[in-house]
Design a protein that fits this description.
The chain contains seven helices and four strands. It is mainly alpha-helical. The protein has a domain of 125 residues: Jann2411-like domain (Jann2411-like fold, Orthogonal Bundle), CATH 1.10.3300.10.
């Protein structure tokens, strides 16, 4: 389940992949090659990325942890610094791509000889960097529900998002309401 809104008119610029990967890493730090490949397929990763050997899984996990560190950055300057660091280490090669049935969008080209961990860092840093630049803030976060560690991208226009889903938000509101009712009835 992606925690990036898909309403009409929103264009999260590939952030669904970034957030879903971070959520996979948080839930399963030692995720296996099949889980990673499934995530890549779900998000339409280029065939060259899918065809790459799976012997780079330790580097993929390390790269994912670097992305999680960015998503945990609440301060915009810290987030920008982390993103610039990733882009310096893993330069992005953007190009416009038109996928069937969709408008033109920016994607990253994979060089002839590449490592998937580098592609992952470049993709994540590029997507998050575009989002930070457009929003002017680190418009992402981790769920405020005490028992949830999922990340989300805040695509809202008004109040900053606090929860990864309406389910978590409702659960917290209901628990708060029930505590308030109990407190009012207990002298």
């Amino acid at each position: 389940m992606s925690t990036v809104p898909r309403e009409a008119g929103t264009n999260p610029r590939g952030l669904g992949f970034v957030v879903d990967l971070a959520n996979l890493s948080t839930a399963e730090p030692d995720f296996d090659a099949d889980r990673f490949r499934s995530l890549l397929v779900d998000h339409g990763a280029p065939q060259r990325i899918l065809d790459a050997a799976d012997d780079d899984l330790p580097q993929i996990r390390d790269a994912t942890r670097a992305v999680v560190d960015v998503l945990r950055s609440e301060d915009v300057d810290e987030a920008a610094g982390r993103l610039n660091g990733l882009l310096e280490l893993h330069p992005a090669r953007p190009r416009l791509v038109k996928l069937p049935g969709r408008a033109w969008s920016m994607h990253l080209d994979t060089p002839e000889h590449f490592e998937r961990s580098e592609w992952l860092c470049a993709t994540a840093a590029f997507a998050l960097g575009l989002w930070l630049g457009e929003r002017g803030s680190a418009a992402w976060g981790s769920c405020a529900a005490a028992d949830c560690e999922r990340f989300f991208v805040d695509a809202g226009r008004r109040t900053p998002q606090r929860f990864c889903s309406t389910r978590c938000a409702t659960r917290v509101r209901v628990a708060h309401h029930r505590r308030r009712i109990v407190d009012e009835h207990d002298p």
